[in-house]
Amino acid sequence: MSEEIRYQINGQLADNTVTVDNKEDMSLVPVSNGSADEERIIAEMKAEDSGLREETIRHVFDLEKRVIKRLLMSGVSVNTGLYYASVNFHGVIENSAWNPAKNSIVVNFNVGADLREAIKNTVVNIIGAKGSAMYIAGVQDTSTRALDSSATAGRAFTLKGAMLKVTGTDDSVGIILTDSKGTITKITEDLWVLNEPSRLSFIIPSGLDKGTYELKVTTQYGQGHLLKTPRSVIKTIYIGMAPTGGGSGGDGGIEDDPLG
């Protein structure tokens, strides 16, 4: 059965080094949104509002890893749905004896049915030339560590991505929040905590009510220069608790959040 979940991934255009003579032939490079270690994965699982305690999630996570290692190292092929894994040996066996200096165990991984289905349900956004696009890759409520676009009034909220540094003289430059009724709240500079190209952190005004807000960041920041025309990214955030099923994705492309 096809998944209902839709995924989005961003790509940036780069010169195709294989076809040097063809300047119109471009390759597409995935935009890296960082890496996810065990702590990040567990945090994302908690953000799904599963109702499970963190220690329960961590126990199941560790148990799965332990079982899969035991199965693979016993010669059992493992199919998790995400991947199919099997063990093989490398190196020539001499005198019918295993020699760790010359022989090694390798594990082969192939894409599983669940991951193939996710690939089919993924939309690719081309967001400009490599190194030039502005986008939000992820968000975090600094007080709760939540990654599900929820925010806490009076506490810091952090955006991660590229070209996010707020700078420029145009009147539109800045950070604003718009509630569901259209009321606009500007995040004044005294509430900015960190203003960098890859990370923007600011305090959510303490007087804002709980609810859904449109967050818009507008800047003239470019690589080593100011843009003549400001550009923006827009993302939906939730002051208070995010709706059930909310993820860490966004809502659009340039002039929107390209993560969808």
TrEMBL record:
<feature type="domain" description="Bvu-2165-like IHF-HU-like DNA-binding">
    <location>
        <begin position="12"/>
        <end position="128"/>
    </location>
</feature>
<dbReference type="InterPro" id="IPR049893">
    <property type="entry name" value="Bvu_2165-like_IHF-HU-DNA_bdg"/>
</dbReference>
<feature type="domain" description="DUF4469">
    <location>
        <begin position="135"/>
        <end position="232"/>
    </location>
</feature>
<dbReference type="InterPro" id="IPR027824">
    <property type="entry name" value="DUF4469"/>
</dbReference>
<dbReference type="Pfam" id="PF14848">
    <property type="entry name" value="HU-DNA_bdg"/>
</dbReference>
<protein>
    <submittedName>
        <fullName>Uncharacterized protein</fullName>
    </submittedName>
</protein>
<dbReference type="Pfam" id="PF14734">
    <property type="entry name" value="DUF4469"/>
</dbReference>
